[in-house]
Amino acid sequence: MKIKRQKQAKKTISFYKYNFSFREPFQILIDGTFCQAALKNKIQIKEQMPKYLMGEVQLCTTNCALKELESLGKELYGAKIILQRFQVRSCKHFKSPVPASECLLSMLEDTNPHHYFVATQDHEVTAGLKKIPGVPLLYIILNTIVLDKPSQSSLDHVQAVQMGELITPAQQQSIRSLKEEQGIGQNEGERRGKKRKRKQSNPNPLSCLKKKKKGLPTPSLKKTDGEKKRSRHRRRGKHGVESAPAAPVTS
Q1: By CB count within 10 A, which of 37, 103, 208, 236 is most buried?
Q2: Claim: this prediction has a pTM higher than 0.70
Q3: What GO CC annotations are associated with the protein (predicted)?
């Protein structure tokens, strides 16, 4: 059973790597409910999470999640101690904390640009993140950590990209960087609308020169009357057959 879960997790991680550009170390957002379930089932998150995901991880949380555990009292004191060991990522609610479920969903935004995994037992968070494409969900069941299969929104997003209807966030970023390199921005349309003024240039000095007169044709040499064509006359025999000239007689 353990090998089967490991294969399924490997397949799911490859899906997010290929389609949503997830890379190690994997960033995992954890809330108090996940820490409470791990404490109850005697799961060492720091030890088991890298083994299960087969790669380096960064365990993190938010200030709102910590404040929520503090407000719940002594019953969740052990979960608060575990959560305090993780990195605290800055959120938009530093001055006025909100419930952890609301804070975690706000960290994901619309496209999960920071490539977070989310580890939670909260059904409200689970229902909210399944509407956002490209968010891996981790939860604890039967004393083990489980990586959920890709949500329907993630599958629909990938299909739309393959059909050419959408582009991935990574492609959007590359297009944006190429535009910046080429100097194409918001003012590009204004630059195209303006017409360039032609500079006044002096006439070409070669075109001002007078045309040269064409020279008279040279007379062709005619043959003089004294020149005559040489012709060779051959003697003809009696029967009209040409005969070669007689050879000189030698004594």
Answers
A1: 103
A2: no
A3: small-subunit processome
